[in-house]
Amino acid sequence: MFYGDATGTFSARKIARATDESMPFHFLAGGRHPAHDTLAHFRKTFLPALQDLFVHLLLYAQELGGLTVGNSSLDGTKIHADASKSRAISSKRLLELDSQLRTEVDTLFARTEHAEQTAMPAGVVIADAIALRHERLANLAQAQAV
């Protein structure tokens, strides 16, 4: 399990397959070929102990000089991310948007009160604009809760 984590082979299925195909895995498994569900159950059952033991293993490897903790190398690979900059909002920006939308709603309600007295711009339906802003406020509240 530790060798799999250290080499980037995290899947129980891949580790089980590697005990057949990879000499280091085969050697560390003692020539045995555990089933993937056995490995997954073992990891799930003993996860807290494994995490602590893995930290000790890394510290021991560092002591022996076989590991330099803190250095990482990147190969420049670009990874596609699903989160876009335009949809990600900071907490500060969320509060700014919230206050801006509330101000717009108040302005629209004020226009509604004076709609009969003043001429409205062509194509503006106040009820739709208010509903849109209330929907955006609800979405912001949901994002803030998350």
Architecture overview:
- By secondary structure, the chain is an all-alpha fold.
- The chain folds into 2 domains: 2-64, no CATH class; 91-145.
- Helix content is 64%, strand content 0%.
- The protein has 7 helices and no strands.
- Helix 2 (12-21) packs across helix 4 and helix 6 (91-113) runs antiparallel to helix 7 (126-145).
- It is elongated, with a radius of gyration of 29 Å.
- The two termini are 34 Å apart.
Entry keywords:
146 residues, mainly alpha, 7 helices, 0% strand
Short summary:
By secondary structure, the chain is mainly α. It has helices at residues 2-7, 12-21, 23-28, 36-45, 47-64, 91-113, 126-145.
Blueprint (SSEs and pairs):
Elements: H1 2-7, H2 12-21, H3 23-28, H4 36-45, H5 47-64, H6 91-113, H7 126-145
So what's the oligomer here?
single chain
Main sheet record: none
User: What fraction of the residues are assigned to beta strands by DSSP?
Assistant: under 5%
- The tally of beta strands, per DSSP, is 0
Low confidence ranges: none
Classify the helix fraction into a percent range: 55-70%
C-alpha termini separation: 34 Å
Average pLDDT taken over every residue? 77
Total count of helical runs of at least 4 residues:
7
Secondary-structure element order, N to C? HHHHHHH
User: If you compute it from the alpha carbons, what radius of gyration comes out, rounded to the nearest whole angstrom?
Assistant: 29 Å
Number of domains: 2
Shape: elongated
Q: Structural class of the secondary elements?
A: mainly alpha
